[in-house]
Write a structure and sequence with these properties.
The structure holds two protein chains of two kinds. A two-stranded antiparallel sheet of chain A has the order 1-4. In chain A, strands 2-3 form a two-stranded antiparallel sheet. By secondary structure, chain A is mainly α. Chain A has helices at residues 18-24, 26-41, 48-73, 81-97, 102-125, 131-150, 161-171, 179-197, 199-209, 211-216, 221-247, 258-268, 280-299, 304-325; strands at residues 155-156, 173-174, 177-178, 249-250. The longest helix of chain A is centred in the last third of the chain and has 27 residues, at 221-247. Chain B has 17 helices and 20 strands. In chain B, strands 6-7-8-3-9-10 form a six-stranded mixed beta sheet, sandwiched between helices. A six-stranded mixed beta sheet of chain B has the order 16-17-18-13-19-20, with helices on both faces. A four-stranded antiparallel beta sheet of chain B has the order 2-1-4-5, with helices on one face. The longest helix of chain B is centred in the middle third of the chain and has 16 residues, at 175-190. The two termini of chain B are 46 Å apart. The mean pLDDT of chain B is 86. The chains are: A mainly alpha, B alpha/beta. At the A-B interface, helix 9 and helix 10 of A face strand 2, helix 10 and helix 11 of B.
């Protein structure tokens, strides 16, 4: 009896192909190459102080990019992150100024951010509004609300014990590492766990890969969407806490255009804007590339105008490299 | 025998790790329909891609009207008179029929302005020729799957092709559309064009083809006159072994009534009533658009009923979402694997467990990965799914194996009622038989099965009882012993006997 060969099935386990592995890890390699080159060009770059500084500066964008990754994996986009950051920051500042317990401030702010994100999520899932439009609406409305709430002026956290305790979030150190960096690590670890070990994580990939098939598989797609926008809002709220804490005040214009840096980090990290394909560690690497690049260009005395062009070039390169790998 | 228009000889093509074509040969003769047969993965698509210049052969030759030829790409081959109508439609949904037909070569008046009246006129002519009752101004997205296929055919005809390759052209067509397609093919044959006809439906091969070429594992097996062959002989050539019985039927004792549907109405469904028993395969026959899939989606909770009732083991069901259908014990395997059946970019494992994750995870949503892997491995083994590993991206598997994963996904939720919508569409002969055997196993285990199929021999071969639908209503009920193709067809077109 003849056995039917399956040309599509390559027999055995595929060998680990070094070249292919290197290509897949191109973002990580790019990051390492960047670090090595700049280390040679400038003595102040590869120092503990500077590296921790970069990580701390990156943390805000990275935390936002965590939520952005989840949204983009469902083939969505979240433009409202910067506005949520600003409004949450303002809410946090008033709560601190009112000397509420720190736990209340933190939980209240995060919940508020989550609710704001879920608003977009409901628009997308139930209202069938395109994610770009839904979050554009949220972005504009929430920025307006922030302006109304703050009257266009910064809100100080005040010089109280509550204010001092709150300042730890953005300026404190734990085991010699800036506290925001711990928050960033925690956010990524949580997202990694979510995406790789939970039902919701699977559903997020599935919705982005084929929404219709996911729905017919008995999954409540609406709930998945509302959840990812909610998480994105929560992360923006966390970023708002960090920023406000660091400055001891909330700026009504805080977070403007942050959505673009977050999207850039996600894309540089190899996640597809079409949804369904990507990984959270890539986003961390993407955020770090952008952070290291900014820092390096600063140290090398490159004007901030040119820095933007350099950043654009990196994003373009990342996307082109990603296209080739498909 | 007339001289071949097109001769492909000794064509070989190797991909990393796979020899897709090994000395494949194909001749196309003027005024004849050549069937190209072989199981999925036999190399038919690869051979066609070599012909149209998408792939370059490692060795072998192509002679076109006697002279050696290579084509730079699909456009080049099309302009030289070789058109291919792909199984997967290549139409732009938002554009009109005319725009799609003339895409990239719009009819222009002087000065480069598009001559819309001429384009619509020409496109309408083609549509009328194919008996498609549509204006060429209509958007593609307004068309049924069958009509879209006809537009593809119209596009090929508009190129005045000398050789037309049709890859599973009738897969999505209604019977009437198939009839008019065959008429068109006959006309093309009379005009002296050469046609390559790829289909898994053997009955069509005998109906419309003159010669047949069989490939197996990338190798040329035989070229024969259709008139000298019968179905068994063809299948034997294709699979290299005899298939004992094409439709393996098994006896299973029918149990009590599981699903009871009473005067159910909803989108596209009008007052449908029937009962389904344990251990029964209830076939659904009918033309496309008769409301069969709509009825299934209603039963599954994907759409909402407007009237009537459904009960499962005496318990009334009021479903609002597929999740509720699955929870109640109803699984639906979609007719459109790629469109809404599978997430093609995800792995075999994650696709298979997608519906059952709730049962495979802790309360907090943490997936029991060990348990999941065990279940998936069990199904891969039991269903004989050919995949290098459970982590393989499912889009890389053959149609038959994808379908088995889709069925496994439905089975993993341990349904009482299994709805199979065109379970063997685009599946090769060998895998088809394996799927039939699986369905029979489910039946013997006492599962209640609804089988929708547009393939009449399949419905007749597999079902215990057959319901025919016409315009959203049940137009006939047959015990399989007394059902005939003619009888089903009469009921399908709404003709009362």
């Amino acid at each position: 009896m003849n056995t039917v060969k399956q040309p599509t099935a390559v027999s055995g386990k595929p060998k680990v192909n070094v070249a292919q592995w290197l290509f897949e890890q191109k973002a990580l390699i790019a990051l390492l190459v960047l670090i090595v080159i700049v280390s040679f060009l400038n003595d102040n770059f590869f120092t503990t102080h500077n590296l921790l500084n970069i990580l701390r500066q990156t943390s805000v964008n990275a935390v936002i990019a965590v939520g952005m990754t989840l949204v983009i994996l469902t083939a969505g986009i979240d433009l409202s992150v910067g506005s949520i950051l600003a409004l949450c920051g303002a809410l946090a500042a008033s709560m601190v100024a009112a000397e509420l317990p720190l736990v209340v401030t933190i939980c209240g702010t995060l919940l508020a951010g989550c609710a704001m994100g879920m608003f977009s999520g409901v628009l997308v899932a139930k209202g069938k509004v395109q994610p770009f439009i839904a979050t554009l609406v949220a972005m504009t409305a929430l920025r307006g609300l922030t302006m109304v709430y703050t009257d266009g002026r910064p809100i100080s956290t005040g010089f109280t014990d509550a204010g001092d305790a709150f300042a730890y979030l953005g300026t404190g150190y734990l085991f010699g590492i800036p506290f925001p960096v711990w928050l960033m690590v925690f956010a990524f670890a949580g997202a990694w766990y979510l995406l790789n070990h939970t039902r919701l994580g699977r559903y997020i990939y599935a919705v982005g890969g084929n929404e219709e098939a996911t729905r017919l598989s008995g999954i409540n797609v609406d709930r998945v969407k509302i959840a990812v926008y909610g998480i994105s809002g929560l992360m923006s709220g966390l970023a708002g806490l960090i920023v406000t804490s660091r400055l001891s005040s909330a700026q009504p214009t805080a977070g403007a255009a942050y959505e673009l840096d977050a999207i850039a980090a996600v894309v540089v990290g190899g996640t597809s804007l079409a949804g369904g394909r990507g990984w959270i560690i890539g986003t961390l690497i993407g955020a770090l590339i952008i952070g290291f690049l900014n820092n390096a260009l600063n140290l090398l005395d490159v004007s901030s105008y040119y820095q933007m062009i350099a950043k654009a070039a990196v994003i373009l390169l990342a996307v082109l490299a990603d296209r080739r790998s498909k | 025998m007339s001289q071949a228009i097109l001769q492909m000889q000794g064509v070989s093509k190797t991909f990393p790790g796979v020899k897709a074509l090994d000395q494949a040969t194909l001749n196309v003769y003027p005024g004849e329909v050549m069937a190209l047969l072989g199981e999925n993965g036999a190399g038919k698509s690869t051979l066609m891609k070599v012909l149209t210049g998408i792939y370059h052969a490692d060795s072998g030759s192509i002679h076109y009207f006697g002279s050696p030829m290579t084509f730079a790409g699909p456009r080049d081959s099309m302009e030289q008179g070789i058109s291919i109508i792909h199984q997967e439609l290549n139409l732009i949904e938002e554009l009109s029929i005319a725009e799609n037909i003339f895409l990239g070569r719009e009819l222009c008046a002087k000065g480069g302005r598009i001559d819309w009246p001429a384009m619509y006129r020409e496109a309408d002519k083609l549509l009328a020729h194919l008996k498609v009752g549509r204006s060429s101004r209509e958007q593609i997205k307004a068309l049924s799957l069958g009509e879209k296929q006809m537009v593809e055919i119209a596009k090929a005809l508009s190129f005045e092709a000398k050789v037309i390759i049709m890859d599973e052209p009738t897969d999505a067509l209604t019977l009437q559309e198939t009839e008019s397609l065959f008429k068109v093919i006959n006309e093309l044959r009379e005009q002296g064009r050469g046609i390559v006809y790829i289909s898994h439906r053997l009955s069509e091969i005998f109906q419309i083809c003159d010669k047949l070429t069989v490939l197996r594992d990338g190798e040329f097996i035989a070229e024969r006159e259709v008139a000298e062959m019968d179905e068994d002989a063809v299948i034997e050539l294709m699979v290299g072994r005899r298939l004992d019985e094409y439709y393996p039927t098994v006896e299973a004792s029918q149990g009590r009534v599981s699903l009871k549907v009473d005067k159910l109405s909803g989108p596209g469904v009008n007052k449908v009533s029937f009962e389904l028993h344990e251990g029964e395969i209830l076939g659904f026959s009918g033309l496309m658009g008769a409301g069969r899939s709509e009825l299934m989606r209603l039963l599954f909770g994907d759409t909402r009923k407007t009237a009537g009732s459904v009960s499962l083991y005496g318990e009334t069901l009021n479903l609002n979402h597929p999740s509720q259908g699955i929870a109640a014990g109803i699984s639906y395997i979609s007719e459109d694997r790629k469109g809404d059946g599978l997430v093609l970019g995800m792995s075999v494992k994650t696709n298979m467990s997608l519906s059952a994750l709730a049962a495979l995870s802790h309360v907090g949503g943490h997936i029991k990965r060990g348990e999941e892997a065990k279940q998936v491995a069990r199904f891969i083994d039991a269903f004989n799914i050919k995949t290098p590993s459970e982590e393989q991206i499912i889009g890389n598997l053959s149609g038959g194996n994808q379908q088995k994963v889709a069925i496994a996904k439905g089975l993993m939720t341990e349904p009482k009622v299994l709805i199979l919508d065109e379970p063997t569409r685009g599946v090769d002969v060998g895998a088809k038989k394996e799927i039939y055997e699986l369905i029979n196993q489910f039946k013997q285990r006492g599962m209640s099965i609804l089988l929708i199929s547009s393939d009449m021999p399949e419905v007749l071969g597999m079902s215990d009882r057959i319901l025919v639908m016409h315009e959203g209503q049940i137009s006939g009920e047959f015990d399989v012993a007394e059902a005939t193709q003619e009888g089903l067809l009469a009921a399908a077109v709404g003709r009362n006997e």
